[in-house]
Amino acid sequence: MEKPEKDFPKGATCGQSAKISQIAPLAESDLAQLTALEASGLSPWSSKQLSQELGLAHGWHFGYRKQQTDPLCGYIFGTLVTDQAEIRKIAVAPECRRQGVASRLLAEALVMLTAKKTSYCFLEVRESNQSAIGLYRKAGFTVSGKRKNYYDHPKENAIIMEKSLEKH
Ligand SMILES: CC(C)(COP(=O)(O)OP(=O)(O)OC[C@H]1O[C@@H](n2cnc3c(N)ncnc32)[C@H](O)[C@@H]1OP(=O)(O)O)[C@@H](O)C(=O)NCCC(=O)NCCS
CATH top-level class for 11-123? Predict the structure, then answer.
């Protein structure tokens, strides 16, 4: 797998140092911030849903903070079942966007999944969400399918994207 770190903005860190100071698994204590951040987006998860996702036996998640004690800037949620991973949610606070936060969260998740011998990672995204599609393409995901009228409020097709994590 290519090293996603090479695409990070100048001065950004990842891997071990990011894990210590900036990127870390989410906790129940993050629930209020997560709920507030979700409320401003499309297809928001409720506090109850977020709590359930935090507690999933086959789930994984990371949050990003500029400094360890700062508020959350962004977060990613996913699952890993046998060797197949799904990215279920990635979001960045509006004031933190276009600074490489989502790229770093995604890179951290892919490093973790690769270490767990995951074969491939997939996700669904709204067809009109060019920001997210651009993010995933940049990380090496490709379009593998479409689900018609998959989303509600507003009704929209989902694009399925995937990335192999096997070393070739
Ligand atoms: C999609 C989202 C997570 C991107 O977060 P971000 O931290 O701003 O993304 P990054 O800064 O890491 O950007 C990485 C790449 O994504 C693409 N991208 C991100 N925002 C974009 C935008 N507004 N317009 C076009 N491309 C965009 C670009 O390819 C970008 O690379 P570049 O900066 O070299 O051009 C963020 O816009 C967001 O939270 N949106 C609302 C929630 C959402 O749609 N989540 C995805 C579906 S679950």
Answer: alpha beta
